[in-house]
Amino acid sequence: PDFPRLFPGLIEEHEKCEMIFVVDDSLNVKDEYRLQDEKSTMVAFMEALPKKCIFNVLFFGDEFTHVFEKSAAATEEHVSAATKRITSMEGGRGPANLLKPLEWVFRQSTVPTYRRQVIVLAGGQVTNLKSVVEIV
């Protein structure tokens, strides 16, 4: 898959970018169908990541975790590690607290010459919606 063709306008074909995926692993996706849809979508994103980009994946519920301490190059090794973590998601990690991972993302320094894109996959309602809207 070709990311610029799959998601026109999100990134340009020859652009260096930082893709940060913020993925719901809360009670919203405890339902097997929602969880499978989210996993499938994220695996498609991973397969389509441009090699010149850097990326990270954050998972949120009542707490949040990330695959890498800071965004990593889209090498086969890094994409494989992220995909492994994505496919092991189980859902059910408490309420959907989207605010904490977004605060973490916005505290991270941007990488010069890389355009940052933050993509949120939420399976339903999030807590602190007003605060989430304000931070974005």
Keywords:
136 residues, alpha/beta, 5-stranded mixed beta sheet, 5 helices, 5 strands, 20% strand
What does this structure look like?
This protein has 136 residues and is α/β, with parallel strands linked by helices. Helix content is 36%, strand content 20%. Strands 1, 2, 3, 4 and 5 form a 5-stranded mixed sheet that branches. The termini are far apart. 29% of the residues are buried.
Average per-residue pLDDT, rounded, comes to 85
What's the overall geometry?
globular
Helix content: 25-40%
Structural class: alpha/beta
Cα(first) to Cα(last) distance is 29 Å
Q: What is the N-to-C succession of helices and strands?
A: HEHEEEHHEH
Unreliable runs: none
Largest sheet, if any? 5 strands, mixed
Q: Which radius of gyration do the C-alpha atoms yield?
A: 14 Å
Number of helices: 5
Quote the beta fraction.
15-25%
Number of strands: 5
Write the layout of secondary structure elements.
Layout: H1 3-6, E1 17-24, H2 32-48, E2 54-60, E3 64-66, E4 72-73, H3 76-87, H4 99-107, E5 115-121, H5 129-135
Parallel strand pairs: 1-2, 1-5
Antiparallel strand pairs: 2-3, 2-4
Helix pairs in contact: 2-3
Short note summarizing the structure:
With 136 residues, the protein is α/β, with parallel strands linked by helices. The chain is built from 5 helices and 5 strands. Helices cover 36% and strands 20% of the residues.
